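Please describe our next protein:
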Amino acid sequence: MGSLEIYDHISSVDLSKNQNIVKKRKMNTEEFLEEEEFDSNANNTKLSIEDRKQVFKRFYMKKDYVCLDRINRRIVNILDGLQLHIGVFNSMEQKKIVQFIYELQNRGRNNELEEHTYSEPNKWMRGKGRVTIQFGCCYNYAVEKNGIPPGILPNGIVDHIPNLFKIMINRLITSLVLPISCVPDSCIINIYEPDDCIPPHIDSHDFIRPFCTVSFLSKCNIIFRHKIQIVGPGEFIGSASIPLPVGSVLVLNGNGANLAKHCIPAVSYKRISVTFRKMDKAKRPYNFKLDSKFQNIKSSDFSDAS
């Protein structure tokens, strides 16, 4: 079925919806807010017209990042392909997402999630011990004792993507943050406490490009460089540092995903990130199943998704 096989049934509907979104973005804010349909669920907090104006004004995309680095005797822009989308999720939605993630963490600590879904290593030094929660697949970051190399574990048992994260995925697709050809089928949550970090790496090609990461709770910087220098636990030196505001979505593609390593230095405050990726078909776990109910979830259903 080609590259649209995952949730292929939503493509024609959402492509049409995407075209309408593009048209609406060309209108002024007042017209957009009057025409946009907001959730009518009585349990939701209603936003005033002025609040909605501010939400819309904050939603914009930054691209055309430039950072030149020498790779194999060639000067290349290692940030080519990066996009930063601001204000994709408003404050009420962020609150619901964070609350749900903490509920997942409690379930993980109580052994209520599948074997490889939840991981909370012991913190034995600065930068070590970040909590991770994986859905759709389990990615092994290091060589296992039996010699299995890093990658998607074909027999790794994890939970399916929860409804709330499917709603987030739908928002990313219908808002043109991710292309319809790259609907994510896996995600990983990182829960940072102060001094936690992510060391320099390039995301595995077990996942196709583009992929994206959403930031919550606190702002931090992400560092890029072809060869990032490690100067201490959680301390890195790179060529470019990009701020990730709360509620923003960083899309990684092109050189930014394939040539440049990236890392998160030790954070000063609590932070949560949710990274959405689509697996290479050949790398999917043996027990992976497509979710036929995805098309029934709408991006406005944050009220009772969890």
